[in-house]
Amino acid sequence: MGKTPHHPVNTRHLLLIILPFVLFILSPLLFLLTTSVVDDTGQLTLEHLKILAVTSRQLGLIKNSLLLAGSTSLATVLIGVPLAFFIHRTDIWCKKCLAAVCLVPLLLPPYIQALLWTGVSVPYIHTLAGGVFIFTLSFFPFVTIITGSGLQATEGLVEEAALMARGRLATIWNVTLPLVAPHITAGAIIVFVFTIINFEVPDILRITVYPVEIFIHFSAYYDEKTATLLSLPLIGLTMALIWWQMMVMRNKSYIALGFSRTGQPIFSLGRLRMPCFIGLLSMVTLCVILPLGVLIKGAGGMETYIKAFQSSRDHIYYSVAVAGASALIMTGFSFIVSYYLVRTRGWISTGLDYLIQLSLGIPSIVLGIGMIHVWNREWTDSVYTSTWILIFAFVSGYSPFVVKVVSAKISQIHPEWEEVAIMGTGSRIRTLLGIVLPLATPGLMAGFFIGFILSLFNLGTALLVVPPGKGTLPISIYNFMHYGAMETVYAQSLILIAIAVTCGGILYLVYRLGFGGKIRT
Description:
The chain has about 525 residues and is mainly alpha-helical. It has helices at about 10-35, 55-90, 95-100, 110-120, 130-155, 155-165, 170-180, 180-195, 200-205, 210-220, 225-250, 275-300, 300-310, 315-345, 345-355, 365-375, 380-385, 390-410, 415-425, 430-440, 440-455, 460-465, 475-485, 485-515. About 75% of the residues lie in helices and about 0% in strands. The protein is globular.
């Protein structure tokens, strides 16, 4: 049989589609960088950068931020890596159930975790240790998911051979951990970035960190210029960290759709199975059952839910509509972007991948300031005063997540299938829509869900750019918290979580009914 001819991706056509999208999601960052070195007359100047002269206060804020993010990264690795190992490499009981349940903390935004744990008066919760506790409960699933992806992507033959020759502990330390070290490192970096740019949790816990200082200058002092300039060191740090995790991961997948190895344990726990299962069950209780229990108990009776719904009905509808529209736009663009990134190699592809991921490191409050810079102009006033600015903000901030999920699925589709289809149809577009799109459907649905819940849960950016007369459910929760109406806060938080769970359930049913679970790669 002759060799199948290769039909290269038309990079020129794809770039014409992708570049405007990349420039769009980077526009807030570009305007922030530009305004920091331009004076009121439009002339280049470095005069404004004097604000960045390090003071004792700034040193303290930087120290607190680094300590908070670094400690959280370490804690999430200590929890997330063993959890991924037990699920994907051992014969622990109920591993698929544990794998699913341990994703539930992703449906509890960090600011809701902060609200509920402050409500139960946990000792030292208003300290850096309390912040580490909250962020660890919220972010350890990222390390579990990424490490699990690495374990699923590696063959177990080397570990099995080492296990027979050297024993369990030596195999885990010298073989298993080195195999997934890039994934562990990438997970820790991502958690570090997410923690250091977050201002909502430190604001609720009254912890003095760098992002809170930025927020204070903008919202309390109305000093947009200082807030913008103060964000530059933070953005510079996150840009470097994002590049580092890209270099660590190279072309490895951040996420694996499915649990292909859960039925093939390599390490038998033996007598340790019961203690390990009890330990994991205790962690699930702390991370999932206890927080939900606190919310349910704090909300009280049904009348509280009715009152909470009535007081925020418009906010609920608005949040769902905006999150749905944002997720739909993200998913559509991410399909084209992901296809390009997966099917091409070289410095252009690597550069675009990095540029797309940059928005991961922009604090939500800084993204809001950047959106104001971009759209608060006479000729864009129709966008600035409408819901579109909020949708654009969400698309700018969360598209990298959707791109990574969709890319993981497209990378599982064999290029040879496309080449054969192109030989028959003579059209890459028809092949893309008729072959790649259906096969990528699980990834697209997962990407839509992630884009939806991230947009639904957003608080920091929405506080700044929500149009007049509108409001989202997280903003309503934030406002009721400041009023001290904690029963309403808990009830609205549960409504928010219920919306996310309902969306996931609907997407799963659509997938099962529409495709019968038969789409495989």
